[in-house]
């Protein structure tokens, strides 16, 4: 009972039992682009295996919040049916009851995401990773934010780093 996966499975099963979520189970999947998912028809809560590993130590709390976010969907759907789907008030109530903080997305400033294999860097050295080679030129989002610029700006263009 010591891996992060076992720990989360135990937590999930406790909540499924406590809230009468019969037939639900937690699975770890190979998603790269999202952290968690609630599959209503299959009664599966999915968490990205890679995202769990990346965040297990530093951000366990965010991993756990993601679990509560998704179980909140299951509970809200069980209680309220179709109108309990999505991120509305009914879902928020369920997440709070589970002990979580309802937030639509994980906090991207805290959570480590799976990095794409194309690394780009701006002149100031900010790194950004993409899953595909960029087809057009992009400006660094950090520089744009710092300078309050909302359109493409040549000064902040990202350059591909070949490795
Ligand atoms: Zn959601
Ligand atoms: Zn930059």
Description of the structure:
The protein has 163 residues and is α+β, with helices and mostly antiparallel strands. The chain folds into 2 domains: 4-97, Metalloproteases ("zincins"), catalytic domain (Zincin-like, 2-Layer Sandwich), CATH 3.30.2010; 118-161, no CATH class. 36% of the residues lie in helices and 15% in strands. The protein is built from 5 helices and 6 strands, in the order αβββαααββαβ. It has helices at residues 4-18, 49-55, 60-80, 89-97, 141-146, and strands spanning 25-29, 36-39, 44-48, 118-121, 127-130, 159-161. The strands form 2 sheets. Strands 1-3-2 form a 3-stranded mixed beta sheet. Strands 5-4-6 form a 3-stranded antiparallel beta sheet, with no helix packed on it. β2 (36-39) and β3 form a beta hairpin. The longest helix is centred in the middle third of the chain and has 21 residues, at 60-80. The chain is elongated and about 55 Å long. The termini are far apart. 24% of the residues are buried. The mean pLDDT is 91. Bound molecules: zinc ion (ZN) (2 copies). One zinc ion (ZN) binds next to α3.
- Backbone CA Rg: 19 Å
Task: Average the pLDDT over all residues and give the rounded result.
Answer: 91
CATH-assigned fold name of the largest domain? Zincin-like
Structural class: alpha+beta
Q: What gap, in angstroms, lies between the N and C termini?
A: 39 Å
Low-pLDDT stretches are none
What's the count of strands?
6
Broad CATH class of the largest domain: Alpha Beta
Query: Architecture of the largest domain, CATH level 2?
Result: 2-Layer Sandwich
Main beta sheet: 3 strands, mixed
Major sheet: order of its strands?
A: 1-3-2
What order do the SSEs take from the amino end to the carboxyl end, as H and E? HEEEHHHEEHE
Helical amount: 25-40%
- Proportion of beta-strand residues: 15-25%
User: Bound small molecules, which ones?
Assistant: zinc ion
């Amino acid at each position: 009972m010591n891996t992060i996966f076992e720990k989360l499975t135990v937590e999930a099963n406790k909540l499924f039992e406590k809230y009468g979520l019969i037939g639900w189970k937690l699975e770890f999947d190979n998603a790269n682009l999202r952290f968690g998912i609630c599959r209503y028809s299959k009664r599966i809560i999915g968490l990205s295996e890679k995202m769990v590993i990346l965040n297990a130590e530093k951000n366990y709390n965010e991993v756990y919040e993601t679990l509560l976010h998704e179980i909140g969907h299951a509970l809200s759907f069980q209680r309220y049916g179709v109108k309990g789907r999505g991120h509305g008030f009914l879902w928020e109530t369920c997440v709070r009851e589970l002990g979580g903080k309802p937030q639509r997305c994980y906090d991207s400033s805290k959570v480590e995401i799976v990095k794409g294999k194309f690394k780009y860097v701006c002149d100031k050295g900010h790194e950004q990773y993409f899953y595909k080679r960029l087809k057009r030129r992009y400006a660094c989002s950090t520089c744009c934010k710092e300078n309050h610029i909302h359109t493409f700006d040549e000064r902040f263009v990202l350059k591909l780093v070949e490795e």
